[in-house]
Specification:
about 250 residues; alpha+beta; 4-stranded antiparallel sheet; globular; binds 2-oxoglutaric acid; binds fe (ii) ion
């Protein structure tokens, strides 16, 4: 495993970088990968074969090693090295708290086996949603290229269609955000389709004290550029047929 250049200074445990303003549980590591690693990953994303991209109305995405079919991962190949290292090895190297195992120690495959790559140009977002039952309830998101706010919502008591915005998390480039437990199961998350995030302050941003560069946002504003996210999760069900599928069933 490659621990990477010395520039990253990982916390001794996730507990040390917990977003304490939020219900259980979210963790934010501002400097999770280096600028060189960010550039290398973005290059791999951008030069992936065209067939890897799925174009939605405003956003495009890639899934590795493949899409899910009925909540099941059919393609059981391991993640390619550029998605595995340094991200997965680093996630697995951090204990939950002193002397405890890492956050995937209780998951069926003991590690993330699936990565969703989403690209958000300015003015694009994702509707508030929950991630559902296909995954072990731990989501690890690496942000690349630009900062933006992830909004956390709760359903309104009266069952209204619009969930209520309750917190915002600012995700800087090269950061890692981990959400789990109630934040995974009880709350919705989404990204507003705006070109500027506004009203950023210590009071409105849950992870303000964990940011790399809070001074960049002292005017309360974040001008968005294209932000690419890598979402790492452990898909609970993996098809036993996966390894035997012929190349016809696989995307490159
Ligand atoms: O890009 C992100 O940070 C969020 C993506 C997301 O919520 C999802 O893919 O389920
Ligand atoms: Fe999601």
């Amino acid at each position: 495993m490659n621990p990477g250049p010395a520039q990253v200074n990982l916390p001794p445990s996730l507990e040390a970088c917990r977003i304490t303003a939020l219900p259980p549980a979210a963790y934010y590591i501002a400097d999770f990968i280096t600028e060189e690693e960010e550039e290398a990953i973005l290059h791999k994303v951008e030069t992936a074969p065209k067939a890897r991209w799925r174009q939605l109305t405003h956003r495009r995405l890639q899934t590795w090693p493949s899409d899910l079919v009925k909540d099941t991962l059919l393609d059981a190949r391991p993640l390619p090295d550029w998605l595995e290292n340094p991200v997965v090895s680093r996630i697995l190297s951090i204990p939950l708290s002193d002397g405890e195992p890492n956050i995937f120690a209780g998951s069926p495959h003991l590690r993330p086996n699936h990565v969703l790559i989403n690209e958000y140009p300015p003015n694009t977002g994702i509707m508030p949603h929950k991630d559902g039952g296909a995954y072990y309830p731990v989501v690890c998101t690496v942000s690349l290229g630009s900062s933006l706010c992830l909004n956390l919502h709760k359903n309104k008591e009266d069952g209204a269609l619009d969930p209520e915005l309750v917190w915002r998390i600012l995700q800087e480039p090269r950061s890692l955000l981990i959400t789990t437990a109630d934040l995974y199961s009880e709350y919705l998350h989404g990204i507003e389709p705006v070109s500027v995030d506004v009203n950023l302050s210590e009071r409105s941003i849950a992870n303000w004290n964990l940011l790399r560069s809070p001074s960049l946002y002292k005017d309360g504003v974040n001008q968005r550029e294209t932000r690419t996210s890598l979402t790492y999760r452990d898909v609970l069900k993996v098809s036993k047929l996966g390894n035997k599928l012929g190349p016809m069933f696989k995307r490159l």
